[in-house]
Design brief:
This protein has strands at 3-7, 10-12, 18-25, 34-39, 46-51, 58-60, 68-73, 78-83, 92-98, 103-104, 108-112. The chain is mainly beta. A hairpin with a 6-residue loop joins strand 4 (34-39) and strand 5.
């Protein structure tokens, strides 16, 4: 059974940091590109970042490039999203995704508010 389980979300003040984790199971994690998306009630689900199978290549959306970092640990079947200098507009549900297989996690809420 394929599972993507996100964790690490929560309430943080503007300027703060969070590290999201996504634990994968049920498929050959290290064979696939992985991504993070986010969604608010007002918008469609937007791509935040992606990482290659080995982790040697990453991409982050322009609006977040200076603040967010994606990484992975294939030994732990886990992909991470380090988010720094968080802003209220970063408030969203963040989802882990395997784009090739269209696997999705259940999402983790990130709220940036004072």
């Amino acid at each position: 059974q394929v599972r993507l389980v996100e964790s690490g979300g929560g309430l943080v003040q503007p300027g703060g940091s969070l590290r999201l984790s996504c634990a994968a199971s049920g498929f050959a994690f290290n064979n696939y590109i992985m991504s993070w998306y986010r969604q608010t009630p007002e918008k469609e689900r937007d791509l935040v970042a992606s990482i290659s199978r080995t982790g040697g290549s990453t991409s982050v959306a322009d609006s977040m490039k200076d603040r967010f970092t994606i990484s992975r640990d294939n030994a732990k079947n886990t992909v991470y999203l380090q988010m720094n200098s968080l802003k209220p507009e970063d408030t969203a549900v963040y989802y882990c995704n395997c784009p090739t297989r269209n696997y999705w996690g259940q999402g983790t809420q990130v709220t940036v508010s004072s």
